[in-house]
Amino acid sequence: MAEKLQNLMKKTAPVDKKEKRNQELVNEIISRGFIKEDEVLLIRMRMNKNWMSYDDTEPLNGIKITPEQTQKGLNWLMNEWKTPKGVERKNNPFGLREQDVLEHFKEFRLDSFTNNNNAFQAGAGINNWVPVWNVIATDGGGFQYYMEAGQAKIIG
């Protein structure tokens, strides 16, 4: 009898509170159709503390960001490419493909998260999850990047 009761309790055990909050957060973002800056930071913090897994965030891959964040991101990328006077910077990180995408910019999307740790950090169990952004042009072209040390690192 006690064994049956234990098996029944295992099947109906409540979900971990953090896991439930993670699911609620992801479901709320999906139902809204876009993700806010503070939610990206919250998810990143939870992933870096191992409170949230990559699998938890997978449904968010490809979701739009807010119009304010889109403008902020586009302004930042354009400033990396050109000076305020419109002159191309000598040390800009963009090739012709990226420049074409920025000239015909349509939208940003959260592509995914990537663990940007080094070998030492990986051996010590330290995570450094960062968001990967997808920049999409009006013709459907695009590129992906993430931020590292204040610089855009083009990865796709």
Secondary structure layout plus pairing:
Blueprint (H helix, E strand, L loop, with lengths): L1 H10 L5 H16 L1 E2 L1 H12 L5 H4 L5 E3 L1 H15 L14 H8 L1 E11 L3 H5 L5 E9 L4 E7 L2 E4 L2
Parallel strand pairs: 1-2
Antiparallel strand pairs: 2-3, 3-4, 4-5, 5-6
Tell me the helix content: 40-55%
- Total strand count, please? 6
Label the overall shape: globular
Instruction: Describe the strand arrangement of the main beta sheet, using strand numbers.
Output: 1-2-3-4-5-6
Number of domains: 1
State the order of secondary-structure elements, H for helix, E for strand: HHEHHEHHEHEEE
| Tally of separate helices | 7
The largest pleated sheet is described as: 6 strands, mixed
- Cα gyration radius (Å): 20 Å
In whole angstroms, the N-to-C terminal distance is 58 Å
Beta content comes to 15-25%
Could you say which structural class the secondary elements and strand pairing correspond to? alpha+beta
- In terms of per-residue confidence, which ranges show pLDDT below 50 for 5 or more consecutive residues? 5-15
What is the average per-residue confidence, as pLDDT, rounded to a whole number? 87
